[in-house]
Amino acid sequence: MNLSFPCVITLYFINSTWMQRYQSNISENGLTLLWSTIVSIFTLGGLVGVSIGSTLSVKLGRRGTLLTNNCFSVMAALLMGLSAFAGSFELLIIGRLLCGINAGVALCVEPMYLGEIAPTALRGAMGMGTSIFLTVGIVSGQVMGLEEILGREEYWPFLLATTCIPAFLQLLFLPWFPESPRYLFIDRGNDEGCRKALVQLHGLAGSEGALKDIQAEKNNLVGFKARKPWELLADRSVRWQVITIILLNAAQQLNGVNAMYFYTQYVFQQSGIPTDKIPYATVGTGACECLTALTCGLLVECLGRKVLIAGGYILMSVCCILFTLTLALQHVSPVFPYLSVACVFAFVLSFGLGPGGVTNILTTELFTQTSRPAAFMIAGSVNWLSFFFIGLVFPFIVIGLQHYCFLVFFVVCSTVAIYILAAIPETKNKSFLEIQNEFQSSKKKTDVLPDEAEALLVSTTGRIEGSQEFYGASDFRQQTVVSGKQKHRCLFNPQGS
């Protein structure tokens, strides 16, 4: 398979820079090492970004962290853009590291911010914003890399420097948006700031209901501070939520979508597409993923999270089988290369329809305010480590199994689909407390509920009565069940949720 334009240009740049410095060609192993470092350092940066992102989101706020994060993007664009003029591939490595940090912070904090400022009825649609603009960024990068725009040898520094454009746009528009009301009220105790933010977001009419929701959550979290990741991992009351986000975020990288992109050039060549036209076909795959992210944003509040993400993994499982068969039969009939192309697009569409966007939404919704930053740190760390793992191991899988590697991805996708159908409740149109209670009620609980679970599930009658207007039809009421010498407190929903 031919190397992509950025890969070829980067290898040429490293070799020419080495020649200018030492008047000799770099060894093949040295060139491979430097190229691998440039590629993998982005993943390391992402892992660092996730680690600092959750901490900054508690200290600086969600919006404050996103604004501060733009410094990494601007510095990365500057270093990568100047690397060619300075004749330094070291600047390229540092720029990629900073770019990874920026991505890690953004992918950790942005879904959290969108989920916290959104009305309950629109939380899923707004949560899809991260996935939608991520795919828009991918397509934009593919288009900018076309030969007619910046895809020429002399323009590649400018192509790398375009990463600063989203940063400048965010610095221009984000200051006009308020800080997360939940962060202001629960984490900072800033009642007045919370009210102003809610009015700005929901208007006077909608702000009262949103404030009652936040007050109900704060009342159940009295005495609890923002939790650390290791505290969340050790808490048995949220064990299944933690297992869920670990599994979903690992599967988001290990489901084979990266492998499918790896095979696109080969499949397009086999189907008769000229080599110089393949970049345009690749843009088509990115456009398909963007289209399905938009479609998912429209459907997520109609069909719900569970249907979309489980359905996406089921369709991806089917595509893995079909793609393996069509690759094995490439030379049997001229029809099979075209079927392989269809499988590529179907797989990408299935990924964008659910797993690509709903994963972040569930990470937001399965946890309450004090646990959410730690949950995003755990989820993000698993995601980036899985990204690094698949990048490291995938070449060996391809060498060993060739196109049968998609049978491995079939196992991953089908296993995750079964888990989603069996273990994850629907979260559509539910408050964070309702989701937490439903998740707890669907699992077997121990006699003594620890820490935050007890605070969430054990409420005084006064608090529940004060929240009845918000909960509406749920009509939760408290009942004490005495069994032997132990008392167990639990919340019962008369409607059976």
UniProtKB/TrEMBL annotation:
The keyword Protein transport is annotated on this UniProt entry: no
Alphabetical keyword list: Cell membrane, Membrane, Sugar transport, Transmembrane, Transmembrane helix, Transport
InterPro entries: GLUT, MFS_dom, MFS_sugar_transport-like, MFS_trans_sf, Sugar/inositol_transpt, Sugar_transporter_CS
GO cellular component, one term: sarcolemma
UniProt lineage: Eukaryota, Metazoa, Chordata, Craniata, Vertebrata
Name listed for the protein in its UniProt record: Solute carrier family 2, facilitated glucose transporter member 5
Membrane-related topology note: Multi-pass membrane protein
Family stated for the protein in its record: Belongs to the major facilitator superfamily. Sugar transporter (TC 2.A.1.1) family. Glucose transporter subfamily.
Protein species of origin: Nothobranchius furzeri
SUPFAM superfamilies, sorted: MFS general substrate transporter
Catalyzed chemical reaction(s): D-fructose(out) = D-fructose(in)
Intracellular or extracellular location(s): Cell membrane, Sarcolemma; Cell membrane
